Request: fold
Amino acid sequence: MATTVKAKFKCSSERISQVPKDTLKDIAFIGRSNVGKSSLVNMLTGINGLAKVSGTPGKTRLINHFLINESWYLVDLPGYGYARVSKSTRGEFSKLITDYVLKCDKLHFLFVLVDSRLEPQKIDLRFIEMLGENGIPFGIIFTKADKLSQAQLNRNIKSYSQRLAEQWEELPPIFISSSEKRTGREEILAFIEECLTEC
Ligand code: GTP
Ligand code: MG
Reply:
């Protein structure tokens, strides 16, 4: 049976000084624009429209906190790699993203979403490298799995893992998802529960 979660929108922040001041932990979702972060938030919570989804990249501009089961926050972050996000954006990753990921004490675990259909993208590899250099705990979620055959999906994940193994002694936790088919929901929710209590 599908796990039910209680979810409600808490707040949107344009600076990290605005994130909730309580002691609840954040589990956040990041990745390139359009990879499916907001869709995954809706799929995990079971509430369509909770996070705003769009076919146009750059939809999520703020840090969005959703309170889950009154006990932790699921955080939908803006995407990176979208050229026209903001004129003040310096470098590859906006200040909002780097401030949150590198400086926000609430962040407990970060899921990096990558499109399961694509070859490893340089920008994702650089983002992951930055996480490693800064000791940020993370896992990878391969999204849009419904768009590939099982064989192609397996091939892509294998080659991505091999690429990561060139840089990492130990691979991060890896998940496969489809927000269309609700694939990966139970595994990701179970992992989050474990991560909140054990790490
Ligand atoms: P930004 O907020 O712009 O960074 O994008 P995002 O990563 O939040 O992506 P979003 O969830 O808005 O989804 C982008 C597009 O991909 C939308 O058209 C979604 O319907 C589609 N999409 C997301 N997840 C899936 C999936 O699992 N399968 C399929 N087929 N389409 C998906
Ligand atoms: Mg979004």
